[in-house]
Amino acid sequence: MMRETETIRVLLVDDHTIVRRGVRALLSTEPGIEVVGEAEDGHAAVAAAERLRPDVILMDLVMPGLDGVEAIRRILAQQPAARIVVVTSFATDDKVFPAIKAGALGYLLKDSEPEDLIRAIRQAHRGETALHPAIARKVLQELSRPSTEPQPAHPLTEREVEVLKLVAKGMSNQAIADALFVSEATVRTHVSSILSKLYLDSRTQAALYALRKGIASLSDDDSDER
User: Fold this and answer.
1) What tens digit of pLDDT does each residue of 134-189 get?
2) Domain for residue 152, yes or no?
């Protein structure tokens, strides 16, 4: 569980130097957040993530050499617990859904307000999702389409359904553990089992699955984070 005094270590990934400098300057004024490194393309991002082990990675998508989606896949293959927030100018389906499928925990557009970026970093650090309103609308449109997902090989247990509902609300493992009066390790085991049974790769995909299947709904979200 994150302590309030713990500093969030951030890696910036963007092929434009001026963007990285701007974000670094913004975050330098925010207590509890420290930029520990920068990378100008996907290859450099994978290497920097391995070397620095940052708490949160802010990832551009369109970069020379290795793009952001493939960088996300490679980083998560090495560090499954890495928390990656996409920060890009693109809101098209061919960018949004591959990034979410690759395992991005959040997706912001570069026209977002500074406070939205800072909130997204803190949410990602807690293991929560953060979506730009335009991206959230796309997610809702996707949810309205007929599902082509395979049926689970094994049905979820009653406890796993409880956990999935809380994952869909954007709650971190520790918050779920507190709500269900179990250990965080137990929650991690449940989340791993849920992803395996549903053939999913990330908490974000699990949350979308829960919404699509009616296990949870957007109206269930009573979080104070907006």
Assistant:
1) 666 666 555 545 555 555 556 889 999 999 989 887 788 888 999 999 999 999 99
2) no
Dist. CA 71–CA 33, nearest whole Å: 23
What pLDDT score does 4 carry?
Answer: 47
Total domains present in the chain: 2
Q: Residue 198: give its domain's CATH number.
A: 1.10.10.10
CB 210 within 8 A of CB 221: no
Q: What are phi and psi of 130, to 5 degrees?
A: -145, 115
State which amino acid sits at residue 214: G
Share of the chain above pLDDT 90, in %: 48
**Contact indicator for 85, 104 with CB cutoff of 8 Å:** yes
Write the Ramachandran bin of 28: left for phi over 0, alpha for psi from -120 to 50, otherwise beta: alpha
Domain carrying residue 44: 8-142
Distance between CA 16 and CA 200 in Å, rounded?
Answer: 33
Percent of the chain predicted with pLDDT > 70: 83
